[in-house]
Amino acid sequence: EPIQPFVTWICALYARLRRVPFYFFTYENQEKAWWWPVSFFERFSVMAATRIVCATKDAAKLLQRRYALSADRFAVFPETGIDTSLFRKLTPWKKRKPILLYVGRFLAEKGFLEIMQAKQLCDQAGHVYQWIFVGSGPMRSFLEQHRKKNLVAVPWIKPEEVARYYNQARIFLYPSLQTARWEEQFGYSMVESLACGTPVISTPNT
Questions:
Q1: pLDDT tens digits, residue range 59-97?
Q2: Across the strands, what pairs with 26?
Q3: What span, in angstroms and rounded, lies between the C-alpha atoms of 133 and 118?
Q4: Where would I find the H helices in 20-158?
Q5: Which of 13, 45, 93, 189 could crosslink 8 through cysteines, CB 3.0-4.6 Å?
């Protein structure tokens, strides 16, 4: 975000004055036209960095391309992991009911409309599934308008309760869409689902 390059620049300046190694983390994976002072702060920080830690390969490629840097200046790994003592497989997949699950914000860029279209097609074809949506967001009212007996909307709940839903579902849906200003970074819900032994249907974003 625009304020972050400024804060990072302050840290880079401090590290240079103290003559100590300087590292920063970035998850930004899309080209954006920033106001020129923001671009200046970013350039200074990038060129001053001993190493740049990126959440994704795309984030590393973006800065490599923008500033013509070598790959050895970068390290790539996700922001963090998940608690596998909490998110773990408790129910065998074959014993689960025909439940399709979504966990996250109710937004168009999360593929929300595509999920609803898939539901309509499945209902018309006579495929009986229960569709569970866990979360909240601007499209909640849209979801309420299309609520039927096989659609359940659950507000935000505690992580241990989310893990229970993952263990009930046969399939987890997360078809997030790339926009001009945003792309999925990591998709924690997908990893939580997989840790619970629940297959994921998603899209090929970062």
A1: 899 999 999 999 999 999 877 788 999 999 999 999 999
A2: 54
A3: 14
A4: 36-48, 57-67, 112-124, 140-145
A5: 45
State the CB neighbour count (10 A cutoff) for residue 137. 16
DSSP label of 47: H
Amino acid at position 204, single letter: P
Count of alpha carbons within 13 Å of 83, Cβ hemisphere only? 6
Q: Token pair of 94, please?
A: 């074959």
Q: Which of 161, 186, 36, 184 is nearest to 87 (CA)?
A: 161
pTM of the model: 0.72
Position of tokens 């966990």?
Answer: 103
Q: List the beta bridge partners of residue 102.
A: 133
Phi first, then psi: what are they for 108, rounded to 5°?
Answer: -60, -40
Count of H-run helices and E-run strands, the chain: 7, 8
d(CA 82, CA 74): 23
Beta bridge partners of 101: 132, 172
C-alpha span between 88 and 103 (Å, rounded): 16
Tokens representing 37 are 């002072």
Hey, is 75 helix, strand or coil? strand
